[in-house]
Specification:
Layout lengths: L1 E2 L16 E2 L17 E6 L7 H11 L7 E4 L5 E4 L3 H9 L3 E3 L2 E6 L14 E9 L8 H8 L4 E5 L11 E9 L16
Organism: Cannabis sativa
Protein name: DUF4283 domain-containing protein
């Protein structure tokens, strides 16, 4: 502990014991993970009014989870999905993209005391296919080259790197859903 070198306002005159500055560190603020820590902030891209009961029913049927999930209102049209274990939450994150009533669902993992605004939730992972690749040109470098114009590369389906797999390379990309989705792209292979 250290002594305060700054002066207190006159209406808040502290004695020497009260004026000590206490160091705070290495102290856990909780007793491990709680059910509140297994949450996701959810935004559904729709203009319609959502009925929470329908959403709960639809997502319980769509998601194969060990425990039930519940939704509560968060703010500004956002919802909070409450999971009872981290495994269930992880399954939902890994299974993206999800939709409800033909409307895309955008998820964010709240960490600490973050307060999410509706316009912050705009990134969703999608699987994409790259077609018409000349023989011998499937590579992680090609995937990175294509993704540079579209979004951020999350992963490459390793099986699709093999020429015997099929007619395309499959990649997972983090897209900004506030921008129009690009339908295609032409690539000129200079070595052909």
């Amino acid at each position: 502990m250290a002594s305060s070198s700054r002066s207190s306002p006159c209406h808040l005159a502290l004695n020497d014991e009260e004026d000590l500055i206490h160091d705070f560190g290495g102290v856990s603020l909780g007793n491990g993970p709680s059910s509140e820590s297994y949450c996701l902030v959810v935004k559904i891209l729709t203009q319609k009014t959502l009925k929470p009961d329908w959403l709960i029913k639809a997502m319980r049927e769509a998601w194969t989870l060990y425990y039930p999930v519940n939704f509560t209102g968060y703010h500004s049209g956002l919802l909070l999905a409450h999971f009872e274990c981290d495994g269930d939450r992880h399954k939902v994150i890994e299974g993206q993209p999800w939709h409800f009533d033909h409307c895309l669902m955008v998820f964010a993992n709240p960490e600490g005391l973050d307060l999410f605004q509706s316009d912050q939730l705009r990134f969703v992972p999608f699987w994409m296919q790259i077609h018409y690749i000349p023989f011998g040109f499937r590579s992680p470098n090609l995937a990175s080259f294509v993704v540079d114009d579209v979004g951020d590369l999350i992963e490459i389906n390793k099986t699709t790197l093999l020429e015997i797999f099929g007619p395309f390379l499959r990649i997972r990309v983090l897209l900004d859903v506030s921008k129009p989705i690009r339908r295609g792209m032409h690539v000129c292979f200079l070595e052909i």
